Amino acid sequence: MCCENADAGIVASTLKNRMLLKKKTNATIDIIHDTITRDLAIFAKTWKKMADKLDKIGEWGGLQVVDLANNKNDGLEKSPIAAMTLLNDGDEFVEEAISPGDSVKVFVAETTTRMKVRFTPIGEEQFSEDDIKISQSKLCKVLVDLCADDEDIYYTSVHKTESGESYITVELNNDFKYVSETLGDGDAGFQIEMYLADDKVVVRRFGIDLMPGNRRRKRQSDTDDSTFEIHNKDIFPNYEQHDVDGSDCQTSSGAVAWAMVFGYYDRLSAEMFNFGLKPSFFRCGADGTTGLDSCVANATLTDDMRPYVEHLDGILVPECGLFKPESFVRLSYMDDVEDFFTERADDDGAHINAEHTQQIPTIEMILDISLPSGFNFDPNDYAVIPRDHAAEYVYHTIQNSQFPVVVGYMDWVSVERTTCRWWRCFSYSVTVPFPRYGVATAVRHRTVQQRRCYNYFFYTYCSPWEVTEIYEMKVNEGRGEAGESWRDVEVFFAAAAFPH
Asked: Does residue 478 carry a pLDDT above 70?
């Protein structure tokens, strides 16, 4: 929706994250319609790609929101199984595997008014109402401190995290024999139902895995053996892009990423004298690149560190122009800092190892300036390093060497454009995909086991259990202290600087 002022100028749009219209413009509705339609087509394709990827992960694929007001099956009376599972006949859903001893944290929505745990039969066996009640009672016996004989979840089962988020812990008794004997033969599942104030239900589905030959599902936290991080991660600096005097552009994310890596090595050498690093990555000169070695790189972007980042920016030769204030470093230039690095490492074995795609991004790929509308690049067509190779490189580099890895990934930036038709012009901002660089400081690997099920009249059929390997990296995005987050290992560039 767009709003006009008294002069027929567009002054507001509800699509504030996709298109920001400046005040006092003379835009016409047909131009805006064309722009929004084109922009949303790209957004829809990107959203579908993300949804398809998340659907393959048990935690997301096993989650569903049901609108009770519209939960019907073409006007026909539902089968007992469909009514029990809050599904329509023929629906497909995903179950997460849970085995004896497994514990799962399920977060609870703020507007939840009631919670249930419900037994769901699997296979062709027909269950009467009495059978369902008996099975429900058995289920509550093997779930630890979650429910009694009925479906309601104990109010006392709700806990809060340190940040105030509510959750329940779904835990299956760790005695395999007890669970197996209690539930009996056959396949079974259950679902957690959270009833919201707006007549909707959030459903998360689980399947009980009692097959001894199956690979056990591992639920791993940020602190277990599958998570690895760099040496003394607490001393890794937090720099950010900043304005440069005499320029309309900020320092590039590539320069900030390398500055954080080199600043980290300088701080590490001062912290760990026996690590084999020489304290010469940051020096006492005007821009931190010359002078004595006695100075130590700061933890944040102080006035001393700004010239240092700008010096690295000069080596990488970023481009700005159409992306103001963002500047863009081409892939072929990202490892040009190797001479700067090896000179200061002062070790014959010092080097930078870079992995990147063969498809070098250009400004023209991202923003076609020949079109007045200005946006024809589809991020879904952008080449990335094959996922398995990227995950292996980033994960094993940090696992084996405990050194940070500079990574390149696609992000979104807002670009100012001006479009003119006939005698009218209007300015707006459009969000476009943009290559950004950050530093991976930690990696983690977890295994998710899941199966797909189909609800068909009186029966529910499920596929065999499948195991999905998930690799994630914790990336310092160069946005100051708030710029660190976990993200999927999907990159077009990865490079590690080895000081010896």
From this structure: yes
